[in-house]
C-alpha cells in the first residue's frame, strides 16, 4: 500500500520493507526514532563509575547493628541511631526506651494520638536544633507504602526515625531529529538547605501524605519547571528504584517512584518556585560522562538517571558489569 498524502506541515520519510514502500511522518521520527534508524548506545569504556554512584547511595550499612528498632502496634516501622534514642529518652510519657527497642506509650493507641504527641516532642527537638530543615510537611510512618499510617511525622525527622520515605523523580527528555536522546538538567538553587548547587532532574520531590505519586509528579512538574498541566499529565510511571544508607542523622531506606516525560523539541522548562536556578538540555552522552566521572548530581538522581539509560537501551547487556548495575537499582525493600 502506498500512502501519498500526509497531514499539513508534516514531512515524509521513506523506508522499504520487501517490495512495499511505506511513509512515516517526521513526528514519528522524533518520538520513535529507533524504528527507522540504528538504536543509540553509549560508548562507555567501563561501568565502574556508574557502579560507584550506586554505592554512594548505599553507604554506612556497616553500622546497621547499632540501630535500635522503632516498634508501633507490634510492627517494626523504623530504626534509631543511639544518639537520637538518648534524645527521646527525655520524653518517657511518649517514648518508651528499652534495651531492645523504642516504642510509644500504650495509651497512644490511635494514629491521631500518636501523631499529636510525637509532634510535640519533635517541635521541642527542633527548637533545640536537634532536628534541622523543618518542612511543615507530614510523612507517613508505615511498613509499606499502601498500608494505613500508624502515625505521621514531620518530614525533617524522617531520617532520624529511620522510616521508609518515598519520593517522585521525573526524567524530562527529548529525542531530536536524528534520533539522539537529550535530557533536561536542573541546577539546584544555592539557597536550598539540602544539596545546594547540585544538578537535578527536571522535577522531583518527596512523597507527602494524602497525595498519589502521579498527582505529586504533575504538581512538581508545574511548580518546578512551569510545565503546563496538559503536558505534565503525559508523564509516564516507569517503575521505582530503592536504596538504603546510614547518614549522620539516621537511616534512609528510600524508594523513588520514577517517571519519564518526553517533551516537545520546542519546549523549554522555566524555573518557577525558586528551587532551581536554570535548566539546560544535555546530550545523553554528556549526562552519562557526568554521572560516571563526577559527583555533580544530587546523589539519588544518579540512580534514576542510570535506570533511565538501562530502560531505554542506552546501556546494554554486552557491557561488562551490566547485571551488577541492574541489581543496584533495587538496593532496598521496594514495598
From TrEMBL:
What SUPFAM superfamilies does the database record attribute to this sequence? Nudix
Nudix hydrolase domain segment(s): 165-307
Name the source's superkingdom. Eukaryota
- Family matches, as InterPro entries: DUF4743, NUDIX_hydrolase-like_dom_sf, NUDIX_hydrolase_dom
User: What is the name of this protein?
Assistant: Nudix hydrolase domain-containing protein
